[in-house]
Inverse folding.
């Protein structure tokens, strides 16, 4: 199982890019949780925490594709690092503003989300310049999804540890400084400095002119909503069953489940139609989130969160293949950034929705939200099955002019849809 992953990590620059991207994305990955914990420490309500997290997510949704398009146009270093610094400064302002001025709080959170660097989309664009075989790129996508779950497992624990040892405010400051260092590590690397996007057709819609990509984004809006609602509802559950430590373990359990599922999924090469496989994975993901409504004691509840996350990373890895297939030429970073954006805004919608639901109906109804949104995501995939299964135009999966400054030939997906 480990052989394929080790082959990727042995490739020059691969480990540095992967680790740097994960560290650089840490502030974004724990932002919603950090905002909830910080507002609660300031005496704010769940509704306020959910609203601020939603504002962060909406601003992030606006910023990611815009910054992704700028990366495609001007390269990674000139966009990624300045954005990381501005985002960290905005979150620092939020940490010192607190709830004293809601206007400043909302503005700071919006700024932090707006300038979050599109490191995740940037990494996907770099894989084919670091790896030179199609099967390696597919394995890298799965490994990438798995590695993110390590971050989502460790991130909440680091956050709650910092908040317990120091304060929620200190946790915000420390983790954002770490994020800037991660972004710096990526943009000074040779692949990032050398990468150039392929020539693109001028079109105001950019990557969104692809029907297949739009269909995929619509489905992942609801996948993100499910995850966001779990993050907020779990705080309510933890308040009645042990506090921050239980909450940290629940969030870590969600990431651990995705880590396990993604590791198994990425250990083999999958044949067949990826759109059909994605429908099966999303159906399993939604089904595994239903048992959260049982709300047992802390230990079995953590195990249920592991189950709830089991099919998350496989679904994301499969989605990466479909993004590659449907992204128009010259929009690779923007296309992947749109997937990140949609997932993030969906998560924000989920947090914003779960706050009032928890306040009025308790954790039981809060945990019903992911079950419903997961089912809606499956319906979207079923309704758009033909669009997603259609051959994409401009997909780049191996060394190409999109990612290779030497303008190598541009191989595309074969008709066999091997992913």
């Amino acid at each position: 199982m480990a052989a394929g992953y080790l082959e990727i990590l042995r490739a020059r620059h691969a480990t540095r890019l992967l680790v740097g991207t994960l560290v650089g994305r840490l502030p974004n990955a724990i932002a919603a949780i950090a905002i909830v914990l910080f507002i609660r420490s300031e005496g704010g309500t769940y509704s306020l925490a959910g609203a601020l997290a939603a504002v962060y997510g909406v601003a992030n949704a606006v910023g990611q594709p815009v910054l992704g398009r700028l990366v495609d146009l001007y390269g990674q270093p000139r966009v990624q690092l300045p954005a990381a610094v501005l985002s960290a400064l905005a979150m620092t302002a939020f940490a010192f503003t607190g709830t004293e001025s809601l206007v400043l709080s909302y503005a700071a959170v919006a700024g932090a989300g707006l300038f979050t660097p599109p490191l995740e989309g940037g990494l996907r664009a770099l894989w084919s310049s670091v790896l030179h075989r199609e099967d390696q790129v597919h394995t890298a996508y799965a490994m990438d999804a798995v590695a993110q779950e390590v971050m989502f497992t460790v991130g909440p624990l680091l956050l709650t540890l910092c908040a317990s040892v120091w304060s929620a405010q200190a946790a915000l400051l420390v983790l954002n400084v770490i994020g800037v260092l991660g972004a710096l590590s990526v943009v000074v690397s040779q692949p990032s400095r050398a990468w150039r996007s392929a020539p693109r057709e001028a079109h105001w819609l950019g990557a969104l002119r692809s029907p297949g990509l739009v269909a995929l984004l619509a489905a992942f809006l609801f996948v993100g909503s499910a995850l966001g609602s779990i993050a907020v509802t779990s705080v309510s559950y933890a308040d009645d069953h042990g506090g921050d430590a239980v909450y940290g373990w629940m969030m870590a359990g969600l990431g651990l489940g995705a880590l396990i599922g993604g590791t198994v999924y990425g250990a083999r090469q999958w044949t067949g139609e990826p759109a059909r496989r994605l429908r099966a994975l999303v159906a399993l993901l939604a089904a595994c989130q239903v048992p959260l409504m049982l709300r047992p004691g802390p230990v079995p509840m953590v195990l249920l969160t592991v189950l709830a996350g089991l099919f998350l990373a496989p679904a994301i890895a499969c989605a990466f293949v479909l993004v590659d297939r449907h992204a128009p030429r010259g929009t690779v970073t923007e296309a992947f950034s749109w997937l990140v954006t949609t997932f993030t805004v969906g998560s924000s919608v989920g947090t914003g929705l779960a706050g009032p639901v928890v306040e009025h109906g308790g954790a039981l109804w809060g945990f019903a939200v992911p079950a419903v949104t997961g089912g809606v995501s499956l319906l979207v995939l079923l309704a758009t099955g033909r669009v997603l299964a259609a051959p994409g135009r401009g997909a780049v999966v191996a060394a190409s002019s999109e990612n290779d400054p030497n303008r190598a030939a541009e191989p595309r997906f074969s008709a066999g849809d091997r992913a």
Q: What stands out?
A: Residues 394-419 have pLDDT under 50 and may be disordered. DSSP finds 18 helices and no strands in the chain. The radius of gyration is 20 Å. Residues 278 and 318 are 6 Å apart (CA to CA).
